[in-house]
Every structure is written in C-alpha cells, then in structure tokens.
Task: structure prediction
Amino acid sequence: MRDGDGFAAFTPAVLLDGAQIGRLTVRAASLRGDSHNWEGTCRQDAMVVTRVGPPEAEFLLLAVADGVGSATYSHLGSHQFARQAAVELDRVAEHIHAALTARDEGELRGIANKAVAHAVGALRFGQEYATTLHVLLVPTDPRIRERVVFGVGDGGLFVLREGRWEKGEPVSEGTLLDTRTEALPHAYGTVKAHLLSAVPGEVLLLGTDGITNPLTQQNPEFAQHLAHAWGGPEVPSLSDFLWQAQTRAKSYDDDRTVICVWEAEA
Result:
C-alpha cells in the first residue's frame, strides 16, 4: 500500500456473487491466477452482476473485464470500466429494449458504441490502463427469448447445448498469428454487438480469456469437466461453483472470471 496503489492493496484474490431472478439463476466468480499469485500482484479481472432499467424494460446485466497486464493500472481500469459501463447502459435501457424487441442489431451496435464512448469519457482519471469488456444483457421478462451481447477484446460468450460448449458470438475476423487483443479505452475499433436466441435448459457462460481460452484451444478434458459440472439437472451452489471455477487447465495461469446463467423450464 505504501507504493501509492491502495486499490491493489485492498483487491480480494477471489470475488463470488450470485442472483435469482424469476426463472434465472446466476453464479459468478473472479479468481486471481497463479501467475499473479507467484508475482505477488493483484487480480486484474473484474465483474458485475446487477439489474438495470425500469420494470417495463428491465435487464439482468452481467459484465466481465480483463485488465491488460502491460498497462500499469489495468486492475483499476477493469474494475471501474465494468461498473461505469453498467451505469451508462442503465441510462439507455429503454432504447436497448426497443432495439431488442425490434431485433435491430444495427441500432444495438450504435447504442453500445455510444455507451462505451461515454464510459471512456467518464473515466479519464489520468492513469495508464487497458481492459477488455464483455457484457450480456438478459431481459427479465421470460417472454423475450433474445439476449444482447457486446464486447471488446478477447474472452466472451459460450453456450452449453446438449453437453457441448459452442461459441455464442460470431468468430472475430483476423489472422491466426495476431495475438494482440483490442482493449479500452483507446486500442479498439468498434464495440461488437449482436443478438442471441436462447432456450430454457441451455447454460450461458460469459468469461475472460482465463476460462474461454482453455474452452476454445483444444482442451477437451477441461471443457468436458465443466460441461458435466454445469450442465446437470441442478444449479450448483455458490461454494460448489467456486470450486468448479477453480478447475486447473494445463499451461493457463491467468486470472479467470466466469459468470453462468441458468434458466429453468416454465
């Protein structure tokens, strides 16, 4: 704390949260990775679980952010940006709801880009940071079957269908040799946004690359373990979810943040 970084000194190694809204159940965990444990540095991931919008246009908002380690204050940037993005999206929840019901992805992209730009403007705190951001908006009205997904950088959304993890977003364009990730506030082109149709019984997983990379990059044992743990008939308790989220994946030692949503049958 004497180095002037009070935020890092009070950042917990583990963050655990959950929610129950109607037929929706949420479990969320953010964990400091082995690399940061070894270095004695703080967790750079952040997450948000909250509700936004008025009753007639209400959403469950889930967000994950991964601070880019090359920037000095990325742990602070990820934390503040995830929360400021939620504030900005709450202000435009009615517009998001209207675009969602009209299934207008173009309008949703415009709303998302403006909200993120406003968040960038609100967070000019004069410190160097870079962070990814991914947001999932789930209407609390069970009659609406589409969900809104948007993000910047690596990480993102997966869907557990019939025991298999499937990417919940369009595959980003680019070369396989480009290992750089887009990041806020400056190193990104546009906020990607799209609609996802969901059905009860599927599990939605929003995560930083600490969990999405091993799911994506040919690690079948890891993927099958989590599919079995989270695809069963019962939603795990908070303590069980935390234990399952800590499942080790060989050669992956970064921070890991994962938020899962279950929807019960009517």
Remarks:
- Residues 174-178 have pLDDT under 50 and may be disordered.
- The first strand starts at residue 14 and ends at 21.
- The helical segments are 6-9, 34-39, 74-91, 93-101, 105-122, 209-216, 220-230, 238-245.
